[in-house]
Amino acid sequence: MKQERLVVIGNGMVGQKYLDHLVADGLHHRYQVTVLCAEPRPAYDRVHLSEFFTGRSSEDLSLVPERFFERHGLELRLSEGADSIDLQNKTIRTAKGATLDYDKLVLATGSYPFVPPVPGRGRPSCLVYRTIEDLEAIMASGRDAEVGAVIGGGLLGLEAAKALRDIGLQTHVVEFAPRLMAVQVDDGGGALLRRKIEQLGVFVHTGMNTTEIIDGEFYRHRLNFADGGHLEADLVVFSAGIRPQDTLARDAGLAVGERGGIVIDNHCRTSDPDVYAIGECALWGGRIYGLVAPGYEMARAAVSHLRHRRDETLAVPFTGADMSTKLKLMGVDVASLGDAHASTPGACCYRYEDERKQIYKKLVVSEDGRRLLGGVLVGDAREYNTLLQLMLNDMALPETPEQLILPAAQGAAPALDVTRLPDSATLCQCQNVTKGALCQAIAEGHCDLAAIKQCTGAATGCGGCEPMVRSLLDTFGVEADALAEVGT
User: Fold this and answer.
1) How many whole angstroms separate alpha carbon 172 and alpha carbon 149?
2) What's the half-sphere exposure (Cβ side, CA atoms, 13 Å) at 286?
3) What's the whole-model pTM score?
4) Which of 370, 379, 393, 406 is deepest in the core (most CB within 10 A)?
5) Residues 387-403: tens digit of each pLDDT
6) How far is CA 189 from CA 176, 182, 355, 378, 380, in A?
7) How many CA atoms lie within 13 A of 254 on its CB side?
8) Helix (H), strand (E) at residue 451
C-alpha cells in the first residue's frame, strides 16, 4: 500500500513532541514524513533557554535523541521553512524553492516576539530573545557593552533580564504595566517580586511607555519615555510578549482569529480537515496557549485523531488546558494558579505576607469557601503542587482554607496525601502523566525515580511534580518490590 505524505512545518518543542507521539504510536510507518525546520538545528528546550548564558550548549539543550530522524525514517530539512501553502493542490513551497506534496499537514510554526512599534526599534544592538541565534547575537553585542535594558517585564522579560545579568551587564527592566508579571500575579505579589528582583541588582521601571530610541549621550541608545524621563543603554532586548506565527495559514486562506492564531477544533484540525495546527500558532476556543504543556496536549490530540480518523469518537480530544505555572526567576520562586486575580463572582481571598522573609501568598476560593479557584505564591512556592491538585481535581478545602498557606508554626494544614487523588489526576503537567499511569508503571516494577522517568516521562520537564512522584514511589514502590520478591 502506498504511503501517504505527512508534512510537519516547524520543529520546536511542540513539533518535536508531535513526532515523538507519532513514533510511539507506530504511525510513522504509515506515512512518508517530512519535517521543515526554519532554524539551523532541530528542536531544543526553550523553557531553559537562559541556561545558554551559564554554559549549557545548544547540544545540551537539544530535545532530539541521537539519530532520531534516521532511525525512524523521517526526513528533516534544516534551515528550510515554508514560504506558501496551496490548499487546493495540497502542495507546499519551501524557502529553498522546493515543492512538496502532502496528504496531511501539521502546522507547528510557534510564535514570534512582539516588538512594539517604537521608532528606533531597528537600531543595531536592539535585539529579541527567542532563539539560540538571538542569544548568540545578545552575547556578541554584550561583549563591549556595560548597560542593558529589557523592554517587557513579563515572564519572558525577566528571563531576558537574567540573561543580561549573567553576561555581566548592569540590567534594567522597563515595563508598561504598573507591576511585573501583570498577567500572573496581583499587586501584592508584584510588589514583593519587584523588591526581590531589585535586591539582585536589577533596576525595575514600571508604568513606563517607551516612545522612541535614539542616540545616547553616554551609551549607544537612549530610551525616551512618555512621562519625559529617559534611560540610556548599550543593548536593548525586546521581550514584550509573543504573537502566533500564522502568516502561512492566513495567506493560504485558513481561518484565523481576529487577533491572530489559526483556528482549530477539539482535534486540532483547522478549517481545512487535512491540515492541523498545534502549539502557540493555534487558537482554540478563542485563546492562544503560550505555555509548552498545552502545546504538548495538542500534539497528543492531533496524533490521536490521525490514528482514529475513521472513527474520531475514539480520538483523545484537546479541550483546553490549565495555565497555572511555577517558575524560578533569577532564583525567586513565583507561582500562579487558576483565577489568580479573583475575577470569579463571589470569590474570596486569603493572604499571608511575611515582609522579613519576603514571602507573599494568596488563595482565591469560592464564595462558600469549599473550592480553590486560584492563587499566587511569591518567594516560597512549596505549596504549589498541593494547591494545583486541589484546584484541578475540585477537592474540598479544609474548614479553614488559610491553613494551606500558613507556616507550620502557625497551624499549616498537613501536606496533601497523593494517594487520595483520583487515578485521573494529572501529576506531571509537562508530559501529561496521570497518577494512574504512574501507579501502573510502579506495579510493573519501575520502582525508582530514574526508571519512572524513563518509562513515563514524568519529572523530565520542569521537575515540579518530582515530590509527588517520589511520594508515590515511597508508598507503592515498596509494595511492588515485595510482590516481585514473592513472585520469585
Assistant:
1) 5
2) 0
3) 0.89
4) 379
5) 999 999 999 999 999 99
6) 17, 10, 12, 6, 11
7) 33
8) helix 449-456
